[in-house]
Design a protein that fits this description.
It holds the Pfam family IDEAL. The chain is an alpha+beta fold. The protein has 2 domains: about 5-65, SH3 type barrels (Roll), CATH 2.30.30; about 70-115. About 30% of the residues lie in helices and about 25% in strands.
Amino acid sequence: MSGEFGLEIGDWVLGKSRNGELIRGYIEKIDILQGAVKVFVIESDNEKTIGKRIGMLHNWVEKLPVSTKVNDGQTLDLIDLALLTRDEQWFIDLSEKLNAHETASKVMTKKNNLYPIRRNRIRNSNSGR
């Protein structure tokens, strides 16, 4: 369900500040009357902006799509969290998921090494021998 302007608190956004800085962050506040959002900046081409909250007009930001893929680094972070919360079943599930992904990656690497892509050795029919 989308809130005002198609944005909600917590949405990840990409945008450009009034100073021209490219930013990526998440929405902390929406001001409907002024048509503005407050964004906590996670990444920016201006390092001084990272970690700050900046106000932006709602039409200066674009909502980023929600990613459903989890990479190995994120899985490792979740494993750490499972250990901290002492959730054994979650730890086992995440470890199995990580091991399955690592096994699949090794199989693909081995397959690519066994059957390398080669250039086409058939000569052009118009070229001389």
